[in-house]
Design a protein that fits this description.
The structure is a single chain. The chain has 10 helices and 11 strands. With 257 residues, it is of the alpha/beta class. It folds into 2 domains: 196 residues, 2-enoyl-CoA Hydratase, Chain A, domain 1 (Alpha-Beta Complex), CATH 3.90.226.10; 47 residues. The strands form 3 sheets. It has a 6-stranded mixed β-sheet with strand order 1-2-3-6-8-11, sandwiched between helices. It has a 3-stranded mixed β-sheet with strand order 7-9-10. A two-stranded antiparallel sheet has the order 4-5. The relative contact order is 0.12.
């Protein structure tokens, strides 16, 4: 159900249920949580990528919750630490990139919203159609989507349940970081991950943590967290390596400590 592959400093998580449009069931939720555990627990992995396997009918990221299981065991699609899909409430330290080719709908949109960065092909579409089933987007869509899109646009998606919000429009509003051609999302995500991996991993994690904690907070909170983060970096081994590499005009050799 979930494939995990380590490529250099990147861990790649693939939802592999092509017969069910990569919908989330118990095995998928538990598999994603296990893969996140692997990424978080491996000092050699600095960035993660979440994507979906290609189906016989074409590319798809995730069709959301398995509605067959929802009718009998809705709680089984969540884990205690990660919530829906083993991800949406998971506390993480390392950046996670969503590589979306084809539809990412309902819980699929919410999995994408749980990632730190988003790469999408021009054939990718998003939507939170839960209102069509007398449900609400309970895995973060109703408050994370208006953080990524203008509020009225997010409200339209929530109230109409439309299934065709295109990646190009999401890119226009800044939710999608990289827009690519069909079939190229995973390659584009790997390229973005490689750019991140050029940098000191501790500094990347601390920058991510501060941005998540300080955005929309008063400036004094931002200054406090930034100062604390800078002090942590001064005390790390990689701080000396970064300076030495600059002086010696070479690429830094990061150790992640």
């Amino acid at each position: 159900m979930i494939d995990y592959e380590k490529q250099g400093n990147v861990g790649i998580i693939t939802i592999n249920r092509p017969d069910a449009r990569n919908a989330v069931n118990t095995a998928v939720a538990q598999g994603i949580e296990k893969a996140i555990d692997a990424i978080e627990g491996d000092d050699e992995v600095w960035v993660g990528i979440l994507t979906g396997a290609r189906t016989e009918k074409g590319f798809i990221f995730c069709a959301g919750a398995d509605l067959k299981q929802m009718s009998t065991d809705p709680g089984g699609m969540s884990t205690k630490r990660g919530g829906f899909g083993g991800l949406v409430t998971r506390e993480r330290t390392k950046p996670l990139i969503a590589a979306v080719d084809g539809p990412a709908l309902a819980g699929g949109t919410e999995l994408a919203l749980s990632c730190d960065l988003l790469v999408a092909s021009r054939t990718a579409v998003f939507g939170i159609p839960e209102v069509k089933r007398n449900l609400v987007a309970g895995a973060g869509g109703l408050f994370r989507l208006p953080r990524k899109l203008p509020r009225n646009v997010a409200m339209e998606l929530a109230l109409t349940g439309r299934l065709d919000f295109p990646a190009e429009r999401a890119y226009h509003f800044g939710w999608v970081n990289v827009l690519c051609e069909e079939g190229e999302a995973i390659a584009a995500a790997k390229k973005l991950a490689a750019q991140i991996c050029e940098n000191a991993p501790l500094a990347v994690r601390e920058s991510r943590r501060i941005m998540l904690a300080a955005t929309d907070q008063p400036d004094d909170i931002g200054w406090k967290l930034s100062g604390e983060g800078m002090l942590k970096m001064f005390q790390a081994e990689d701080f000396k390596e970064g300076l030495a590499a600059f002086v010696e005009k070479r690429a830094p050799r990061w150790k992640g400590r």
